[in-house]
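re: ur question from yesterday

yeah so i grabbed the chain u mentioned. its 190 aa long if i counted rite. heres the sequnce exactly as i have it in my notes:
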Amino acid sequence: MDAIVLEDSRGRKMGDEEFERFCLDNPDVRIERNSNLEISIMSPNTPLTGAQESEILRQLSNWNFETRKGIVFSSAAGFTLPDQSILSPDASWMSNERWGSISPDEREKFSRICPEFVIEVRSKTDSLPGLKSKMETWIKNGAQLAWLIDTKRKTHWIYRHGTVPTETQTDFLLGEGPLEGFKLDLTLVY
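ran it thru and got these structure tokens back, copy pasting raw so excuse formatting
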């Protein structure tokens, strides 16, 4: 099942603060907004997908703890992108420098900043074309590296700024750029 998109004009009339309030008033669902200000409501993940995301976050957090290069975010974090989208990746990372560029007040909102690295995990309810489009949105709005992981098909797409996505079926994904040295062991995720 794909996300439900609110078809009425109510969603498009919501400002950033109203959208944030709408999300806070509906904590049991995942809500995002695209650049056309259309609001998508997604079902919660299955326990399997939640466990897979948790393992990915553990590995990313462990690497980050060792390097102290930035900050890791879970799927609960929403970011306001330059194109007005408000998206929540399954896992993301931001350098200390980028994190330090936003005020403490902005950190309490859907911050107007794009993480340098994002990961999306395809769940049972996600459409592959929809997720690929979302990955392109991340890259167009400032992410340097993005990984789309389809655990069922054991296929992964690597998105980099300025290049065509690379499809792979490896057991490991290797970080690059600011994530140099990060190695995601997908055998622990499947």
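noticed a couple things. The CA atoms of residues 1 and 125 lie 5 Å apart. also The mean pLDDT is 92.
anyway ttyl
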